[in-house]
Amino acid sequence: MDLKTPISSLAGIGPSLSYKLSRLNLNTIGDLVYHFPFRYDDFSNSSLVKDAQVGQVVTLQGEIWSIKNIYTRFGKVLTQAIFNDGTAPISLTWFNQGWLTKQIQVGDKLQVSGKLTKYKSRLSIMVPQWEKIEDSFQSLHTGKLVAVYPETSGLTSKWIRTKIASILLQAVDQIPDPLPSSIRGNMMLLSEAIQKIHLPDTIVEMEKSRERLGFDELFFI
What value, to the nearest 5°, has the Cα angle with vertex 137 and ends 145 and 10? Predict the structure, then answer.
């Protein structure tokens, strides 16, 4: 995979998305790989509803019992779902995402992450991150350290995260490490640092990747 290849060559990226990506100066595959997160959401605390505390950021696995859109008198749409992990039901609420009722159906198994709150005496998560639990499920948006990227209108971190994850392993193979081992020492290889800045398994990995990338920036200046 050539890093100089136009980003428009990737599947699912047409003129409209190409234009939105260009607003972030993302024009090639290399630009996308070097579009680093500016922060992370820590969704690594997996729990059961019965054990979770109000105010905690938690990750839950369960089933959708109901989902519907509610239209307000101000023209807004609330998408509300009842989610049950087998220990207690909670409500999930999204704002102005009415299309979710086409993506999430009653009976779907989901992993959701977000802050547990109480709304009208019911346990709730407002605007949770979510993924369907399907065969060979591997979390990308929930249940771990999740990268948050610089965004623009029409391009969310979830979309950017998905696209980067789909090309990352092939792309980093094309990135040589310019530092000899005598200078690099115990720091990560450049390819590993780029991979772990996007998809860290732990806070330590994220910090080590930042250390290596920050060193390169100063060294080449």
Answer: 80
Query: For 153-183, how does the pLDDT look when each residue is reduced to its tens digit (9 = 90+)?
Result: 989 999 999 999 999 999 998 899 999 999 9
For the chain, how many residues are written?
Answer: 221
CA distance 58 to 41: 11
Would you call 117 helix, strand, or coil by DSSP? Answer: strand
What percent of the residues of the chain are helix, what percent strand, and what percent coil, each to the nearest 5? Answer: 30, 30, 40
Count of CB atoms situated within 10 Å of the CB of 79: 20
Phi and psi based region of residue 143 (left: phi greater than 0; alpha: psi -120 to 50; beta: remaining): left
Nearest to 64 by CA among 19, 100, 31: 100
What global pTM score does this model have?
0.90
